[in-house]
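Each lists chain and fold; for instance:
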Amino acid sequence: MGVTSPPVSASCPAVEQWFAAHGWQPFPFQREVWSAYARGESGLIHAATGTGKTYAAWFGPLIEALAEGDGPKARERGLRVLWVTPLRALAADTARALQEPLAALGLPWAIETRTGDTSASVRARQRNRLPEALVTTPESLSLLLARADAAELFAGLHCVVVDEWHELLASKRGVQVELALARLRRWRPQLRTWGLSATLGNLDVALEALLGTGEAGARGDMEMRERPGLPSAPASSPSVAPAERGRIVQGLVPKVIQIDSLIPTTIERFPWAGHLGLRMLEPVLREIEAATSCLVFTNTRAQTERWYQAILDARPEWSGTIALHHGSLAREVREWVETGLRDGRLRCVVCTSSLDLGVDFSPVERVLQVGSPRGVARLLQRAGRSGHQPGASSRVSCVPTHAFELLEAAAVRHAAHAGQIEARLPLDQPLDVLAQHLVTIALGGGFYAEELLAEVRTTRAYRALTDAEWRWCLDFVVRGGPLHAYPEFRRVVEEAGHYRVTDAAVARRHRLAIGTITADATMTVRYVGGEQLGTVEEAFITRLSPGDRFTFAGRVLELVRVKEMTAWVRLARRTDGAVPRWSGGRLPLSSELATAVRERLQAARDGHFEDPELLAIRPILALQARWSRIPDAAELLVERTRTRDGHHLFIFPFEGRLVHEGLAALLAYRLARRAPITFSVAANDYGLELLSAEPAPLDGPDDLRAALAPAGLIDDILAALNAAELARRQFREVARVAGLLVTGGPGERRSARQLQASSNLFYDVFQKYDPDNLLLHQARREVLERQLEQGRLATALERIAAGPLTLVETPGPTPLAFPLLVDRLRERVSSEQLADRVLKLQLQLERAAG
């Protein structure tokens, strides 16, 4: 039993005075969290961006420390609060926010960060003693757990706060946090855990993932302490008992979010993706000029570079007061931009999701979103960067890159006001993460198998882990599984039931490889003179030759040479002509936004054009209705037409690009089984196209409905796509996380090609000698769930089967079909040729439309 202290109040005079000195009063939801913390409870704080979540979580531990006065607990030094953030770029901002009230409250606490950016001197100091509050990332937390003295390190820990929990929840990094929290709770059974989230649709599931099932408890902890050879768990505990269940605390401060659009003065009746291009530049410039500070969000880094350069070219006098920010830029550049925003020196920053999150950008007055946000939560998160303080309203304006994005802007506004926020679904049983965790814990003092199994099963991710799966993972790290003949894969040794790492080389390699972020290999971009600009994907650089130019960091650069993992560049003397760009991933429409789009189309079909965006595209929709129809929310519209290219089948489920890519492959496969036929396919967020030289073997709507039946989906989709090759590539990520692939230590970085070759070798060996290997099964499952969105595809097919299907013969490609036709052309011609071809097609269709 821990030492019992008097009950702690939900506030105290010093805290009230600190808030009053800033002209504030604590909000009711903040007091609710402080009271719950004082009672030993854990939970999830769900509140809009900029309404005080950070201080809701932070002041609970501070009030507790103030209540201790000058007693023996107050004189204890060492880690009391662990603050986990998803981005190391946020760590410094978070630490500043946590530090701010300490002096006024008279608390002599040290606040430090521990991330990949932490200096060697600070790391050395932290090896001896951690500060009272530590801001860290999931990866750095796992590194701390890998220390032999990890149990003593966390002996005085009272509280863990997981910031931006929604950003971690649906990823392997979230599972990494779940496992780390389970370990900390075993050492500290009364540990309080609080998560912070701004935009999330499945709060109950998020809470369960954060707090776990809680079935291991203190009994397992006592048994662990009695085993010889293990570090002792601390004798003391926090002063209060844990609550039976965690709670969800909703922010009670209403956050006014205004969502509107910049509407083009002219809109073609046959729009296509990107057709507006930079034609919206002047309206954007006017918005920037009217605001004291502005964030212009884009969806890709290439778009960020392009818009930044266009703004600078149009307003050269703004040089030095505008900047760009994305994840590939050097850390020093990003920090300069963030400081400039905080200090109010920058009037505009063009950015990607790298600025979605943050602590204090209160000077930002205005937010613009270039292109569709593709999701409700994403737009709300970005909108919250303006008015990022309690009581302030937020405004975001959508800037369409093609006309139908006005439809999405209207849809996202209705969905946001209706509270239709995307859910983030936690992962179930990624065994590559578990294998990595086993080696981490074996390094951090070692473990006994039955005790660690009980601990792991307290997490939501592994609550259904079977004994057989556990034994397989244990064998994988101890014997190397099918690689048992190679000593480097026998990473953990077992002595008298106790598992630990004894090989120094294994320990070093594992510490270098801890983590689940497996983005494509990147290369450093550096001037020949020496200044580092940032990083770009290796796959992009390898497509260039010396002398080629590309845009990066707001400059047009010329590639001089590539040596090892560095691209040496200089400023290009010429900036005209074709300039290669890398674009990053294309985000698909979320299921919630897709539903909202169908509902807005239904409104237009019924004659409701109250939304200014719908009113702007009314001529487009009128032509769509005249040549075909506007589908209602439950209807599947199918259009069939013929051009000189062949026979076109356009299908519009409005379910998002990834679903439509899978659906196109599925339908092409099923139709080809009926009769020999070859299709060219295209897909976007609204629908898909099948193009063939001969008419598709379909006798009518019922025949098409049968081809879209949900039965046999998984078998057919795996046969339709090169599933084996997709699984082979996905296995590279799984193998890296599980510890089969080593990316190399300092100065030993291996290229993506080398990693893929090694991964292919493992894949082939397992396929031949260990076909039931659970990592192979995981790779196949991840292909279905993550790349093909098999769950959404199945749901879409069930919706289609239950609703009406309308097949229309059209005189030509309709406004809804035209973007699909252009997307297919885009793959075959250059950008200049594409513009010419599209213009000719538009003129032909406009003449036909009259």
Remarks:
- Confidence is low (pLDDT under 50) at residues 1-8, 216-244, 577-585.
- The chain is about 45% helix and 15% strand.
